[in-house]
Design a protein that fits this description.
Length: about 220
């Protein structure tokens, strides 16, 4: 299996990419999403504050995302096993990033690292999955700045097919990282102050439409 990751400037683009991965045949258990909640777009009861919409794919009267939210213990659990990754969203906090909305195996790994006091849980989870440390720092910084990270484990022989799906609306990490370095950024700092809602919004506005990503 190969691990591929892409950063998106907003949750909507990332969630669409996740749905396209699943539609292409990738099991949701092999996909993970970690999205900044700096602007508080996602509430603890599963409601998206930016749209007011709820998700109830299993029609039990309870928002699917709320069933996997709250403490983070339910992260990665898709309702009914068939509703898809996005039905298992949960809330968690990552040092240096702040509040995130997450689901899937990578989020669970990061949560486990944080539970035992490992600093930079997201970076550790990424490097453990096979992502290079430099790339892991860039992805963590991207989430800190308001972005959304999608990571998937895919069969080696189908890597190119799934990468093509993620590349449609993701960030060009080489260009983005270069821009950060020109501003004085060196690497992700778990002790850094998380971005505020205004800072995350300005970051998105600065770069405009997401573009194609780099290596992982």
């Amino acid at each position: 299996m190969a691990t591929i990751s892409r950063l998106f400037d907003d949750y909507s683009s990332a969630s669409k990419a996740v749905q396209e991965l699943e539609a292409a045949g990738l099991n949701h258990e092999q996909v993970s999403i970690v999205a900044s909640n700096a602007d508080n777009w996602y509430s603890g009861d599963g409601t998206r504050r930016d749209t007011g919409k709820r998700v109830d794919r299993d029609r039990d009267g309870t928002d699917d995302r709320a069933e996997g939210a709250a403490t983070g213990a339910g992260i990665g659990a898709a309702v009914g096993g068939t509703a898809g990754l996005l039905a298992g969203l949960g809330l968690m906090a990552i040092p240096g990033i702040g509040p995130v909305v997450a689901a899937g195996w990578l989020a669970s790994t990061a949560l486990g690292a944080l539970a035992v006091g490992t600093a930079g849980g997201l970076i550790g989870a990424l490097t453990q999955a096979g992502v290079g440390e430099e790339d892991a720092h860039s992805y963590a910084e991207g989430v800190r700045r308001g972005g959304t990270l999608v990571t998937a484990r895919v069969p080696d022989g189908e890597r190119a097919r799934y990468e093509a799906i993620l590349d449609r609306s993701s960030v060009n990490m080489s260009e983005r990282t270069s821009a950060w370095r020109n501003q004085g950024w060196k690497q992700f700092d778990a002790s850094a102050k998380p971005y505020t809602a205004d800072e995350a919004r300005r970051e998105r506005e600065m770069y405009g439409t997401p573009r194609r990503t780099g290596t992982y």
